[in-house]
Each structure stands twice: as structure tokens, then as C-alpha cells.
Amino acid sequence: MKQLEKLLLLIRTVRHLRLRQVAFQLWYRLRPKPFIRASTGAKTAARPVWNGALYSKQSYFTPNRFEFLNKTGQVLESADWNSEQFDKLWLYNLHYFDDLNAVESDSRVQEHCALIHRWISENPVMTGNGWEPYPLSLRIVNWIKWCWRNPTEVDQTIVNSLHTQVKALEKQIEYHILANHLFANTKALAFASRFFEGASSLKWGKKASQLLTHELDEQFLDDGAHYERSPMYHCILLWDLLDLYCLYKGATESSETCLLLKVRAERALGWLNALVHPDGEIPFFNDTTFEIAPKVTQIHDYAQHLDLKCGNISLNASGFARTTKGRFTLIADVGQIAPRYQPGHAHAEAGSFELSCGEHRVFVNSGISEYGMGDTRKQQRATSAHNAVEVRRAERELNSSEVWSGFRVARRARVKAEKAVSSLQCVIEGFWHKNKMAVHKREFLLGEAGSNENEIIIRDFLLGADGGKAYFHLHPECKAQHSDSSVEVNIHGHSVQMEFSGIVKKVTLKNGYWYPAFGKAEPNLYICVEFEDKLVTKIS
After folding, report:
1. What is the rounded average pLDDT of the residues 486-504?
2. Helix (H) or strand (E) holding 338
3. Residue 59, pLDDT above cutoff 80
4. CA nearest 437: which of 459, 463, 415?
5. Which pLDDT does position 448 carry in this prediction?
């Protein structure tokens, strides 16, 4: 890429940021590393009874083996905590200490105690990945929960280290990133304010309360969705809401905050309920895959434990739609990339959909298997990795939005959607080449009452393009065969017929991958339909 093109791409990206983000980016990059004095004699408050739920699977296997993201590694000496042989995200997970509160972790208390002391001795203050704000936030919460669950194992060394870690987090609040990172910082401050006593505790509690009040309104939409529009992150943030509600519940001085958490949590539960597939799990929109967030059943069990109800909501503000027709369940993304100032987990997926037949997924977005800035990450965020339409112009295949690097978006597609009883449509303005854009209009026709209950028609129209490619990614359990203008898909005894008409140039069946978890890739098939400016797809 030419230097001028790179500069323009950067400008188109940065212009969406908030001034506060830019200011803190510059400040955090230019300032000296904060000096944090190791705490001594830190005092804990009266211990509450922690009865929050557990969901993580075991990730630490004594004496030195860890498994994260479906990759195993050995941490044999102090340098291994930050070894370049491991990916950055793997190292982050190493420092989270999720295993302290994993399911059945009560059988490993002594091993956990030794591991905590090892981390303290091998990770000097403000040195390495473990002292960055996001892993700090998750580890602080995990250590505090563990301390409350195992009070006889807690000594002054652990308490002092925890106090030091909270001081380090306080100096690195992620105002430059915002979104789920800032919420994780806030949760850690809230837990720390309840764990410690003294002036610092009061200060952390006040800061947490201020941030919570603002971020609950900022990050959770009216229909209950977390505003990054990732079902996976929605589950993570919803668990945070439940943890915070569990923390504040019963504390008279926090009754107002507790009420805010209750309202947001119940709406978030409603959104999750409205979006899941018939198999009970989340669809793969934006950065979403399995094995990272709590399962939907675990979330509902925790909510029930806390006497929270599932809100009855309609999908609107988040830009998603879900409808059932006969044996089909259709879930579609007909919204814009959001939030405007933090699209790091967004994909170029406008107009994409997933479809189940009965309880079996048929059409699936590809999912994600890694973060970073490599070709795999680039491909997984592209329009072609989704059940969407890619536009061709000047012999270039164009994404609906300008996704680039690992977490960047420059120009974003403008999407206008209309929902009716028997139809759903969206108009997508994007697919830039130089300074010109193209338009893709997609209509989902669900049929009037009395029409074929097991038929969905998708109509695609292009304007300002040389042609397009419509992608239909099949779940790995699907088998398929095709002719010139049709495809027959078979899954668990069901036969799904696809017929293509309009100005169709070519229908091909290709080998691809579906990514059900980090570090996993399952072979699947996908259908690519090349067309000029009109395509009609009948699914029955």
C-alpha cells in the first residue's frame, strides 16, 4: 500500500474517535511509565459471603501446564510469563487467573495458592503483560473472588499484592479504548472497593459508582444489547452485570446502583433470549465464537439464582432481527457498525444472516479463531466470511465496510432497515473503491399468512457495481450437491432446497472452514453465487 493511501486510511479511521480517546492515546504513549509503590500493611474489609456462580473450565494443570484457546503451554520459569513463543492473547489469558474460579476449582485450592504466590514473586510491579490494564482488571476480580471463597488461605502477601495491582489499574484506566475494556476496569474497582478498607477503598468505590452509572447507559442499548453488537461479548458483559448485581445486592448504600444493574441485566437477558438459535446458543455475528463467554444456560442459571427475570423485549436498537417461519429460524444483522468510536470487534457483515432448520444450523457465519493482524483475521472479518454479498468493481472484490488491520474500520457502510410482518429489508451504502461507493439492497421475503410456511426468499439488488458474489456458508454437518442454478443441502434427514434466479453468472460449491472456537477450524462447504445486478434466492 502506498504511503499516501495508508495515511488516508488512517485518517478515515481516526476521525471517528472521540477526542478523549485521542488525548489518552497520546498521553499513555508519551508519559513515563507510572511508578507504583508496592503496598504494605493493606487491610481488608469485613468479608462478604461470595455466592456468585462459576462457569470457566479448568485451564491450569499442576505443576506448570496451562491450556488456553485450545493451545497448551508450559510456564517453567519467570521469563515464560511473557515469552514470545506464545501469542499475546494466550499470554493475557495466562495472567487472567480464570482457573481460580473455574467449575470444580474447590479441589485445587492449595495449587492455586502456590500459583498466586509464584505470580507475585515472578512478576515485578509494572513489568510484563500481567500489569497491563485489561489483564489486571480480570485478575483482580478473580483473586478477590478466590480470597472470599478461601479466606483461610489468604495471607498478607496476597493482600498487599492485590492492593498494589489495584493502584496500578487506577493509573491506567482504559479511556483510550473505552467499551468492554472500560467496563472491565470498572468492575475491578467495584470489587476492590468491597475487598479493602481505608481511604483508597472509598476512592475506588466512588470512581466505580461514577463509571458504572455512565457506562450502564452508554454501553447497553434500549433493547438490552451490549453496544458492540457481538453476541459473545454480550454474554461476557452480561455475566459482569450479574457479578456486579451479586456484589451490590443487599448493600443499602448501593441500592440505586443495584436497581440500575437489575434493570440492565434483565433487558440484556431478554436480548439474549431473543437472538439465540433453536439449539440454545448464540449466532456468529461480529467477533463471536464458542468457548470464550459463558454458555447461555449458565447465564440463565446465574440470573435465576439472583432472582432476576428475563425481560420481554423487541429487537430494534441493536440492528438485529429474528423471525421464525415454519421450520426455519432466520437471524439477520441489518444494522450499522457500532459504536462509532470503538468498532474493534465489528465485521463487514451488513445484511448477513444465519438460518436454522428445526434445531440444526444450516447457514452460519464463519466465526473467529484468532485475534492479531494476520491474513486469517483479515479474512474472518471480511464480507466473504459471512452470508452476505461482496461487490465487484474495477476487478476488485470489495467489503461492505473498510475493515483493516486487526481491529480497525475506516469507512463504514450506512445501513437503513425496514421491518414488517412478512418482510425484512436493508439498504447498504458502502463498498468503496477510491471515492465511489456502491449500494446493495437485500430483502428477506417471509410470505403472507397462508403462503408456504417452509419457504424464504432473499432478493439482492446492486447499484453502481460491476457485479457481486453472494455467499452462503454451510454448517460443517451439512452435505450439499449443486447444479447450474440450484443446490440441495442435507442435514440430519432434512433436505433444504436452494434455487437461484435473476442475472446469475455462476454457482459454485467450495471447501471452506467454520471456526467454532479460538484455535479450531472445522472443514465445511460454502456456496458462492456470482451475479450481475440482481439475484433471487429461494430457500425451501
Report:
1. 95
2. none
3. yes
4. 463
5. 65
Higher pLDDT, 221 or 250: 221
Distance CA 461, CA 251 (A): 57
* 326-353 pLDDT per residue, tens: 999 999 999 999 999 999 999 999 999 9
459 and 442 Cβ atoms separated by less than 8 Å: yes
Residues in Cβ contact with 7 at an 8 Å cutoff, skipping those fewer than 6 apart: none
**pLDDT averaged over the chain?**
96
Secondary structure, 3-state, 11-80: HHHHCCCCHHHHHHHHHHHHCCCCCCCCCCCCCECCCCCCCCCCCCCCCEECCCEEEECCEEEECCCHHH
Q: Rounded CA gap, 12 and 31, in Å?
A: 26
In a domain, 330, yes or no: yes
Give the domain extent around 518. Answer: 320-539
In 3D space, the residue among 459, 489, 445, 451 whose CA is nearest the CA of residue 323 turns out to be 445
The pairs formed by 213-217 with CB atoms below 8 angstroms and a separation of 24 or more are 213/257, 213/260, 215/182, 215/183, 215/186, 216/260, 216/261, 216/264
Return the DSSP state at 115: H
pLDDT number for residue 298: 98
% of the chain residues with pLDDT over 70: 99
Q: Say if 350 falls within a structural domain.
A: yes
Query: Is 356 domain-assigned?
Result: yes
Q: What residues form DSSP beta bridges with 226?
A: 220
Cα separation, 320 vs 460, in Å, equals 18
Task: State the residue for C-alpha cell 459471603.
Answer: 49
Residue 76: other Cβ atoms inside 10 A: 11
Count of domains observed in the chain = 1
**SS3 assignment, position 459:** strand
Q: What is the separation of C-alpha 482 from the centre of its chain, rounded to a whole number of angstroms?
A: 34
